[in-house]
């Protein structure tokens, strides 16, 4: 009897345990807890992304161009051509030496004949001298007319130059520029612009790190000529891919690409995708009052496989929020080149930074946005008296390389 009761109690206890493990309400409680945990994790991730995307510099709204003036590329300095020297006047012929008179006696007939010959020779000499004098007068008149025409042409050229003065141009001094970068609004690593200007040559290397892809590196190097910056080679490397190179062959006036066999003509003042930023900065440094809202300037810009005209318009002065504080900057935007053009470039140049770019926002055709925002103290790498003013009319600025911009106090 006791054994049967014990077996019955064990059976009852075992049955209750199995019932509890297969209870559907308990399983719903477990699944609900898992669901709540997943939702909580998603909420935390969303908040982190939202905080990373938050910025005081909103994406520029779609700009409707209101064109006031269109500026086309023209030389930044011109040397007048000296007038041609007038041709020399012909020299008069020397008079023939008098013939010695014979010492022996001559007859009257011979004397008469010699007298006639002497008179004829004198008349011929007078005619020759008169002809030479006429030729000299004509040459002098032609020379005076050529000099007058040259003077008139030089005066007309000077008058035309005064009516349409050459662009003032001031290339920014050398410096290592550091920028906070954002990819599609999400904070990324620090990017750099390596800029060197020795007065005759320049080099620009833009490096933007991208996670899991590798850095985007854009390189431009060349010299300065009468149109400003003159690139010689442009290189574009995205991540671990091989670099695409564009050569500006100024001997044959051709653009040569490694990405495509199709060459294109090289225009005067042509730029690449990143030298155009410093070309614009140099022009604005020269005459900042010229670039008012609504003024658009055309640039011939080469990519890694093509060349197009970029109209860049002045939008206006705006406030830009940086890590070191607010700064006033002039906003420039590249207008669409054709219908459906989704590529966009917005540049903010700050007078407090010597008209260097304080913010660059590049929108790719696929919608990807790459932003560079000035990182460091709000002063240019090398401070000179004219960097925040109108600049100088020189073709370049030989300022001493300055201290790299940094976020150190």
From TrEMBL:
Coiled-coil boundaries: none
UniProt xrefs under InterPro entries: DUF3108 (IPR021457)
Region (Disordered): 1-24, 75-120, 378-409
Biased composition (Basic residues): 1-11
The keyword Transmembrane helix appears for this protein: yes
Low complexity: bias regions: 12-24, 109-120
Biased composition (Polar residues): 384-403
Pfam family, one: DUF3108
Transmembrane feature ranges: 28-45
Alphabetical UniProt keywords: Membrane, Transmembrane, Transmembrane helix
Biased composition (Pro residues): 80-101
Source superkingdom: Bacteria
Membrane as UniProt keyword: yes
Name of the protein described by the UniProt record: Uncharacterized protein
Species, as recorded: Caballeronia mineralivorans PML1(12)
